[in-house]
Every structure is written in C-alpha cells, then in structure tokens.
Amino acid sequence: MTIIDGKKISSDIKQELKNSVEACRQKVNAVPGLAVIIVGEDPASQVYVRNKAKSCKEIGMNSKVIELPAETSQEELLSRIESLNNDPEVHGILVQQPLPSHIDEYAVTMAISPAKDVDGFHPENVGQMVLGNLDNCYISCTPYGILELLARYNIETKGKHCVVIGRSNIVGKPMANLMLQKLRETNCTVTVCHSATQNMPELTRQADILIAAIGRAHLITKEMVKPGAVIIDVGMNRIEDASRKSGYRLVGDVDYEPVSKIASAITPVPGGVGPMTIAMLLKNTFQSFMQAQGSADSL
Ligand SMILES: NC(=O)c1ccc[n+]([C@@H]2O[C@H](COP(=O)([O-])OP(=O)(O)OC[C@H]3O[C@@H](n4cnc5c(N)ncnc54)[C@H](OP(=O)(O)O)[C@@H]3O)[C@@H](O)[C@H]2O)c1
C-alpha cells in the first residue's frame, strides 16, 4: 500500500518553482506576484492568507496582502480588484472566501480578470477546462493538485472507473470533469455522487479511484471501498481531541486506518491533498507570469 505524500510532492513542486523563479529573475529581472485580498477577520482565513504569503516568499515570488474591514462595500472591493487587474506586477489575484454576506461572491469572481484568475473560478477558465483546453486556462487548485499527485505517483487512470463524491464548484465538479478528459490521459469513466445519491456504497464499491470531497468526517468506511482502490481524501474536518493542545484534530472524509488496509494507495489527512492546493496556486501564478512575459519558451 502506497501512502501518497502530498507534503513531499508539494515541496518538490515549490523547489521546482523556486528554481524557475530564480531563472526568471536572472534573465528578465522580474518575478511573479500574487495578490490576496481578505475581507473581515475570520481567523481561519487569516491563517490561510498568511500561509499563501509565506509560500510566495519561500519561492522568491512577490506577494501582496490586502486586508479590508468586514464592512467594506462590494463597490470598494470590486474597485480594488480592478486596480490589481491593471497592475503589471500582479500576475495572480485571489479573494479569500468566505466573504461577508453583503458581498456577492459571483460578482467578485466575475470581476477578476480571467488572465489573473489563478484560483480557476472564473467562468471563462471553467469553460475552457470543461472543453478540454487545459493549456489555455487555470485549473482550480485542489483538483489540479490531485491530478499532479496521480501523475507523480504514476497511477494509471485510463479506462478506470473514478467515483467522485461531492459536486461543489471548487472541488467536485472540476474534479469529475478533469477525470473525464481525453486530453492529459485521465480518460476515466466517471460517476459523481452527492447528498441525494441513492445506494452510494454500491457505487463507491465500483470505484478503481475514489475521490471524497464531502466535508463529513470518516463517512467513507472500509465497507464502501473496493480492495485495491486508490483513495483520494479531500475532506478536512475538525473533530474533538482532548489529547491535543488545540482540543481538536484534523481528519478526512475517509476512515483512514481500516480503509488504508485494503486500498492500493491513499492520501492521508493532513499531509495529502491539503499541501497541494497552495503549490498549485503558486504554479498557476507562475504560469500567468510566463504568459505576461509573452512567451513561455523564451525563459
Ligand atoms: N485539501 C484542500 O485543500 C481542500 C480544498 C477545498 C476543500 N477541502 C475540503 O473538502 C471538503 C469538501 O469541500 P467543498 O468545498 O467541496 O464542500 P461543499 O461545497 O460543502 O460540498 C460538499 C459536497 O458533498 C456532498 N455531500 C454532503 N454530504 C453528503 C453525504 N452524506 N453523502 C454524499 N454526498 C454528500 C454535497 O452534496 P450536495 O451538493 O447535494 O449538497 C456537496 O456536493 C471539505 O471538508 C473541505 O474542507 C479541502
């Protein structure tokens, strides 16, 4: 059984990007820049934003964090985004979610230039992805990270039955679409499950590759898994744990211990899919920078 080590792969990707960023600095005296806007003071969001800025710094990219008060109007936020759209030193723009309830998330997504939408949430990027034009779009970072894990662990996907549980716009839907693509050879037969799916264990037991993006601790039990399946656990759920200083610990959607005994490969939580999301955000920002330079081949 293989434990798919997202921490190591993400660290490899960051090192590769660090080398590429340094090469750019030497060649064109410029580096990629990522701008992150955070509205309000949600503690979890603040941690995510700090981690993104720290990761940028580690690989030599510029980062700009714009902290706005919770009462910021939608108009003000859209105007900040417009300035970043026009800033040549900014190659990626990300607005941390969740946003305060008076702000329309869709309007925010639409305001970010598709060329700087390194989250891959803009309909133009989503549309290109669905059409299979994967080299002409930004792929949503978590599904992109999962593709990278499958590729770097040489996991055969062609012709396999992939069952994705979850249909959110940021994980489940793009993931299912990507696994279906003929390009890049994912080439799976795909089934998508959600909260209204009937007889889910019957479907999950057919999966050669099972991707859980649900947000329910340990929902996927050993009885729901085919022996030898590859298990990708996207879930990040806090459960109480009095033995931890924080009083909680992070677990996935998959009941790891028993499932890992019958799987052929599995991502742990933490240390599986999670670390890949930031790595792919950096990769998308680098891709945007290269496009802004005019030619990816000239560097
Ligand atoms: N590792 C990372 O970097 C990363 C990134 C993003 C998300 N996550 C984690 O991944 C999980 C999913 O995130 P998300 O944003 O996709 O969540 P979400 O928007 O809440 O979507 C959850 C999906 O799971 C489905 N679902 C809920 N209960 C179910 C059940 N009992 N049986 C079958 N399907 C069920 C929902 O179905 P309906 O559509 O019918 O409601 C929905 O499609 C969360 O734990 C989140 O924290 C991790």
Examine the secondary-structure arrangement and name the CATH architecture of the largest domain.
3-Layer(aba) Sandwich
Main sheet, how many strands, which sense, barrel?
Answer: 6 strands, parallel
Secondary-structure element order, N to C? EHEHEHEHHHEHEHEEEEHEH
Strand content: 15-25%
**Cα radius of gyration in angstroms:** 19 Å
Spatial ordering of strands, largest sheet: 1-11-8-7-5-6
End-to-end distance: 40 Å
* Overall spatial form: globular
* Helix vs. strand class: alpha/beta
Mean pLDDT: 96
Runs in which pLDDT lies below 50 for 5 or more consecutive residues are none
CATH fold group of the largest domain: Rossmann fold
The CATH top-level class label of the largest domain: Alpha Beta
Bound molecules: NADP nicotinamide-adenine-dinucleotide phosphate
Notes on the protein architecture:
The chain has helices at 6-28, 43-58, 74-85, 105-111, 123-131, 141-152, 172-180, 200-204, 256-262, 274-292; strands at 2-3, 33-39, 62-68, 92-95, 161-165, 189-193, 209-212, 230-233, 237-240, 248-251, 265-266. 40% of the residues lie in helices and 16% in strands. The chain contains ten helices and eleven strands. It has two domains: 29-113, Rossmann fold, CATH 3.40.50; 140-274, Rossmann fold, CATH 3.40.50.720. The chain has 299 residues and is α/β, with parallel strands linked by helices. The relative contact order is 0.16. It is globular, with a radius of gyration of 19 Å. Bound molecules: NADP nicotinamide-adenine-dinucleotide phosphate (NAP).
